[in-house]
Amino acid sequence: MIRIEDLELAAALAQAPSLSAAARALNVTPPALSMRLRKLEAGLGLALAVRTARRLSLTPEGERFAREAAALLAQLRALPESLQRDDSRLTGTLRIAAPFGYGRRHIAPVLARLALRHPDLRVQLDLRETPWPDHHDADAVVHIGAVRDSSWVARRLAANARWLCASPQYLRDHGTPREPRDLLRHRCICIRENDEDVTLWRFRRPGRRAAGQKAFETVRVTPAYVSNDGNVARAWAEQGLGLVVRSQWDAEAAVARGTLARVLPAWQLDAAPVMLLVPSRKGRSARVKALLDCLDEAPR
């Protein structure tokens, strides 16, 4: 007989790059997880995974079992909610994944208000560098940037323009760029995230232009500094190390207090909208609806 623990094991294996990572997700030791996997495979009479010293991959049978397991777990988690007569009293667990910076500043306060409204609701917030597509077991994922995946339902939370910024001191010492191509002579700070091409900066000049002016310009910068943490990159720029591209939600406070200044304001960079993603197989539960209500009330 297949137990809930077996379903959780299969779902964890589908998301984890190794047996050790799956063990951490389930809060068990790797030897214990390996034993559970061998027992499950023996009971099914199937090989579910191929294990090497560094990596774990599912067999075709394992992939199918993991998909079915994830769907069954989603149904089981939604069952108590579907039986509730009072929709205003939420129970169960709401699992949210979000990027570090935006999650700390905007999502955590929203979840705090949600928890105060629904004291019987358990809330889990997982902050990580790339919450999507790494976190398929979440009820909702906050993602910054475009998404093309029909298995997720996307809702835009904020338009999120991106600004090119530098400290006033840096601009005094090195000069202020007048055109995007001037960046080739400057020290640039790049942020490595979402497997994007972080050194290719695309600019667009909206509105009317004088004769001979370009409407679009793309620059391949050579980064002087690289980090996978946007807060670190912004702090480096505030300390005068170079120019950085940051989301408006992250840079506008520094611009307001004068530690950063916008550069090339007549040019626009590609926007990176803030999206709330919900797996389409889970539908929109009462918990997710309550989250959306709190997000709608939050200041942008």
From TrEMBL:
InterPro entries: LysR-type_TF_proteobact-type, LysR_HTH_N, LysR_subst-bd, WH-like_DNA-bd_sf, WH_DNA-bd_sf. Keywords: DNA-binding, Transcription, Transcription regulation. Gene3D superfamilies: 3.40.190.290, Winged helix-like DNA-binding domain superfamily/Winged helix DNA-binding domain. Residues 2-59 form the HTH lysR-type domain. One of its GO terms (molecular function) is DNA-binding transcription factor activity. The keyword DNA-binding applies. Pfam families: HTH_1 (PF00126), LysR_substrate (PF03466). Belongs to the LysR transcriptional regulatory family. This is LysR family transcriptional regulator. It comes from Bordetella genomosp. 2.
